[in-house]
Amino acid sequence: MRTLDYIAPESAADAIALLAEHGESARPLAGGTDLIVDLKHSPGNIHILVDVSGLEEFRGIEETDEGLRIGSMATYAEIMENPICLEKTPEVVAASHTVGAVQTRNLGTIGGNLVTCVPSADSAPALMVLDAEVTVAGTNGNRRMPIEEFFVGPRKTILQPHELLVDIWIPKKNLGKPSSFYKFGLRKGQALALVNVAAALELKSGKIVEPRIALGAVAPTPIRILKAETFLSGKKPTKKNIQEAARIAVTESKPIDDFRASASYRCQLIQTLTQRVLTRSLEIATAS
Ligand SMILES: Cc1cc2nc3c(=O)[nH]c(=O)nc-3n(C[C@H](O)[C@H](O)[C@H](O)COP(=O)(O)OP(=O)(O)OC[C@H]3O[C@@H](n4cnc5c(N)ncnc54)[C@H](O)[C@@H]3O)c2cc1C
After folding, report:
1. 121: Cβ below 6 Å to ligand 1?
2. Which end of the chain is more exposed for a tag (fewer CB within 10 A), N or C?
3. Phi/psi of residue 286, each to 5°?
């Protein structure tokens, strides 16, 4: 039977030092909903769990002059109940509601979701359409980057073994931006997304401004559909333009065939769901 050492460091600096010392044989532990499952299938090279879930630097959700800061250790349950998130980032709340079941949402963290970096990670599209940035800390200090740059490939981020995801920042100008999230799974609960999608946009003088579209489970990482965003920018919010943006989203995606669904079925979902989130975002923009 495998034995694991468990260490609960008192600060982010201590956690980074431990990870730097032990390299590939140590792993940060947050809620454990991905890591504990993964450990059962890992080759046995992991011997130390560094529990970062209680670290003050990684906790909390607060609004500052810069925008909204969500600590990487915020659980889905915390996000779903947070008054600022409920008011200003409702699609991040909506995405949180779709994750697993109550137990998963009580333990699982938004940071753990981004670091696991599966293509279907539900929090990713909702954060990407708000131009979220992430802060990473390591032995060389902190660095901040757009969330898209954090994802490298399936289950692969830019993090080095000694690095930790500290927090997620949503710029002030995007708080309350009209937006929408939709996840399609084979069941209502406890299902990974066949496709998940988020959109955000503004309406100015009857034209679409700063449109954003992000999709999950349709490519090796969650992706922004930049060509569709460029197409929609400055256009009138007509049904035809929305349909064309969704068509571009299909051509920009590379969904796989697997036991959950065929690629062609996923393409139909991309078309339908992209239209749906764009239409919903327009409704919100029109009403506000
Ligand atoms: C039953 C079940 C249902 C699920 N349903 C969904 C679903 O519907 N949608 C979905 O997207 N996901 C789902 N998941 C996956 C999982 O719950 C989420 O990805 C969750 O957010 C992971 O967070 P965690 O805190 O549990 O991370 P952990 O399991 O603790 O960690 C995950 C990985 O991230 C690393 N890590 C964690 N925090 C940090 C940090 N701050 N810095 C650096 N590395 C870090 C860990 O070392 C590990 O490699 C499900 C999981 C289960 C078990």
Report:
1. yes
2. N
3. -70, -35
- Is the beta carbon of 133 within 6 A of some atom in ligand 1? no
DSSP annotation of 230: H
- The residue whose CA is least distant from atom 23 of ligand 1 is 112
Q: Which of 84, 228, 249 is nearest to 170 (CA)?
A: 84
Q: What percent of the chain has pLDDT over 70?
A: 100
Of the candidate CATH numbers 3.20.20.140, 2.60.120.260, 3.40.50.2300, 3.30.43.10, the domain formed by 5-51 belongs to 3.30.43.10
Q: Is 72 in the pocket of ligand 1 (CB under 6 A)?
A: yes
Q: Which residues, at least 6 apart from 100, have a Cβ–Cβ distance to it below 8 Å?
A: 33, 108, 189, 190
For residue 113, with 0-12 CB atoms within 10 Å meaning exposed, 13-18 middle and 19 or more buried, which class applies?
A: buried
Strand order in the sheet with 67-71: 61-63, 67-71, 164-171, 133-138, 141-146
CA distance 258 to 81: 35
Q: What is the pTM of this model?
A: 0.97
What angle (nearest 5°) sits at the alpha carbon of residue 247, between those of residues 245 and 250? 115
Residue given tokens 């982010």 in the structure block: 12
For 179-287, CATH gives: 3.30.390.50
Q: Pick the atom of ligand 1 nearest to 29's CA.
A: 30
- Written as six digits, the tokens of 15 are 């956690």
